[in-house]
């Protein structure tokens, strides 16, 4: 049996400003899926990149008073540098203005669609939102303003190249309705189907070179036009695989892959679930297998975005509060459907309540008790710990629950399966009270000593199980817990804090409490 290949991508963001927490959400979600699929023995390619060829980038560079290439290089570097503070296992990064794979692939893709008769040129007038890099009809606006950016689109009149999207209306509907092209969650699938049912119109796929300020990839054979930034950007999923430059990656990760998974925000769903599949059909390429859609992060109800100026710097957050705290908040707080409002108080509370007080406290207590009652030698008892059925069941159920949740693109539910073990283990300690078993053992009850061995063995196994299942979500923390629970010459390391409590303004940072007063 051949090993499955899974290709996981994020969208590639405009680099008109520094990265924000909203894109960090997508990166972390993609990283979890990549790590999860790798743990199941699959070959995985996790890819991200930057969208450099946008008019938004040109306008931002002009406002900054520097050259466009210099401007996008600086911001792109900040996006690429998120890999370290977010602990990302990225395999490849593509930059659309710099990577030699990209232009060759975009040109090949253009010609493939032209060969099927799907490209034509015509005069067009319409309302264009630079923020979205998209034309809108008046009925799609709110009091004449873009719903996404709140700005009034520009009236644009010029001759452009168009793509025959209308030709693929029925085929797209059937592919999505039957989940041959799977869109999750269902609310987003229904949104796409409703959009298709309203009738698909051909769309413009080029801009005049003059209006684009000469920035972008020229249309093959027509230097008066540059390729529309969305046509250019969507192609990255193929161009990074050598679609235009040769090699085996295109076969391994696209035409021959079992899973081709796009993670996207709801604001760009139309491009990924309608335009892109139609473009692929035209070019004779397989479609993605899964489009997984997340909603927005907000601050005080306002969407985090570079254009609006409502932003939170994920690199600065990681430096101040730690990678684990950021990843945990993104995975535990953000719902499968619906926006999530970010505050520092919520970040701190989630980290302190669950990571420090809940998980960190558990690991510290268990390791400390094994040192106190068994001189650091972790008992190897396989006997069922008295009253430990709930903990045993939580450990047994976790793999299935995590698999099911991640298949449904539900990170809250997946992390809850891990957290179920933590809750059961802490509940078990408070119920069984190992320190009282130790006292009875010291009083000469040999049978109680065997029970204590079984309890401690069950608890250290639970901690190791937590680390194993936590690895895709919090790789740094999982590695630390594994190290804390590993034996060297049969002995556990001395207990040390797994998580530091995060200081709120005006308070001091302290390690997690290990409740030693109850473990005596």
What would a concise description of this structure say?
The chain is of the alpha/beta class. The chain has 18 helices and 16 strands. The strands form 4 sheets. Strands 3-2-1-12-13-7 form a 6-stranded parallel β-sheet, sandwiched between helices. Strands 5-4-6-8 form a 4-stranded antiparallel β-sheet. The chain has a 3-stranded antiparallel β-sheet with strand order 9-11-10.
Rg over C-alpha atoms, rounded to the nearest angstrom: 27 Å
CATH architecture of the largest domain, by name, is: 3-Layer(aba) Sandwich
Overall, the morphology is elongated
Cα-to-Cα separation, first versus last residue: 54 Å
* Share of residues in strands: 5-15%
Strand segment tally: 16
Q: Helix count?
A: 18
Order of neighbouring strands in the sheet with most strands: 3-2-1-12-13-7
Largest sheet: 6 strands, parallel
Return the domain count. 2
Assign a percent range to the helix content: 40-55%
How would you characterize this protein structure?
The chain is of the alpha/beta class and 520 residues long. It folds into 2 domains: 5-341, HUPs (Rossmann fold); 345-518, Isoleucyl-tRNA Synthetase, Domain 1, CATH 1.10.730.10. It has 18 helices and 16 strands. It has helices spanning 21-39, 55-64, 68-80, 100-115, 169-177, 186-197, 229-234, 236-239, 249-255, 269-283, 314-321, 323-333, 344-374, 389-407, 411-432, 434-442, 446-470, 475-484; strands at 5-10, 43-50, 92-95, 119-129, 134-136, 154-163, 182-184, 203-204, 206-208, 218-219, 222-227, 259-265, 290-294, 297-299, 302-303, 340-341. It has a 6-stranded parallel β-sheet, sandwiched between helices. A 4-stranded antiparallel β-sheet has the order 5-4-6-8. Strand 12, helix 10 (269-283) and strand 13 form a beta-alpha-beta unit. The protein starts with a strand and ends in a 36-residue tail after the last helix. Residues 507-511 and 513-518 have low confidence and may be disordered. Belongs to the class-I aminoacyl-tRNA synthetase family. It comes from Actinomadura alba. It is an enzyme of class 6 (ligase). Pfam families: Anticodon_3, tRNA-synt_1g. Keywords: Aminoacyl-tRNA synthetase, ATP-binding, Ligase, Nucleotide-binding, Protein biosynthesis.
């Amino acid at each position: 049996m051949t090993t499955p290949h899974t290709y996981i991508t994020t969208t590639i963001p405009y680099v008109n400003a520094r990265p924000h927490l909203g894109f960090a959400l997508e990166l972390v979600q993609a990283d979890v899926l990549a790590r999860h699929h790798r743990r199941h023995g699959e070959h995985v390619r996790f890819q991200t990149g930057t969208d450099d060829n946008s008019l938004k980038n040109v306008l931002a560079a002009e406002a900054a008073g520097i050259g466009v290439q210099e401007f996008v290089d600086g911001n792109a570097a900040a996006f690429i540098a998120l890999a370290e503070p977010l602990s990302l296992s990225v395999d490849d990064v593509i930059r659309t203005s710099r990577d030699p794979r990209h232009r060759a692939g975009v040109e090949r893709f253009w010609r493939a669609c032209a060969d099927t008769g799907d490209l034509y040129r015509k005069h067009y007038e319409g309302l264009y939102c630079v923020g979205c890099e998209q034309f809108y009809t008046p009925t799609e606006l709110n009091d004449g303003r873009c719903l996404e950016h709140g700005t009034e689109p520009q009236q644009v009149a010029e001759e452009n190249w168009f793509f025959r999207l209308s030709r693929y209306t029925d085929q797209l509907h059937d592919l999505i309705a039957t989940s041959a092209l799977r869109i999750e969650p269902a609310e987003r699938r229904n949104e796409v189907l409703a959009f298709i049912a309203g009738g698909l119109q051909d769309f413009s796929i080029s801009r005049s070179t003059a209006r684009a300020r000469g920035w972008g990839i020229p249309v093959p054979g027509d230097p008066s036009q540059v390729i529309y930034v969305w046509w250019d950007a969507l192609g990255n999923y193929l161009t990074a695989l050598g679609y235009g430059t040769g090699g085996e990656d295109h076969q391994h990760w696209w035409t021959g892959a079992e899973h081709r998974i796009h993670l996207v925000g709801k604001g760009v769903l139309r491009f990924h679930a309608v335009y892109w599949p139609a473009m692929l059909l035209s070019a004779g390429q397989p479609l993605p297998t899964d489009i997984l859609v997340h909603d927005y992060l907000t601050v005080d109800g306002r969407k985090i975005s570079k254009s609006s100026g409502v932003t939170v710097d994920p690199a600065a957050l990681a430096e101040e509060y730690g990678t684990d705290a950021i990843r945990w908040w993104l995975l535990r707080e953000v719902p499968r459907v619906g926006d999530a409002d970010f505050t520092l108080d919520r970040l701190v509370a989630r980290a302190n309540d669950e990571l420090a007080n809940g998980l960190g406290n558990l690991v510290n207590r268990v390791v400390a008790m094994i040192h106190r009652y068994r001189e650091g030698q972790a008992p190897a008892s396989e006997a069922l710990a008295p009253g430990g059925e709930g903990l045993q069941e939580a450990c047994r159920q976790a793999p299935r629950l995590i698999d099911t949740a991640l298949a449904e693109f539900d990170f809250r539910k997946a992390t809850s399966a891990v957290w179920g073990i933590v809750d059961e283990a802490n509940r078990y300690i408070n119920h069984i009270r190992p320190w009282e078993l130790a006292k009875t053992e010291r009083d000469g009850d040999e049978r109680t000593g065997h029970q204590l061995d079984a309890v401690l063995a069950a608890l250290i196994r639970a901690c190791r199980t937590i680390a194993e299942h936590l690895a895709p979500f919090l790789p740094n923390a999982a590695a630390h817990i594994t190290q804390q629970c590993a034996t060297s010459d049969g002995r556990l390391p001395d207990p040390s804090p797994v998580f530091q409590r995060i200081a709120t303004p005006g308070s001091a940072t302290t390690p997690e409490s290990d409740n030693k007063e109850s473990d005596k």
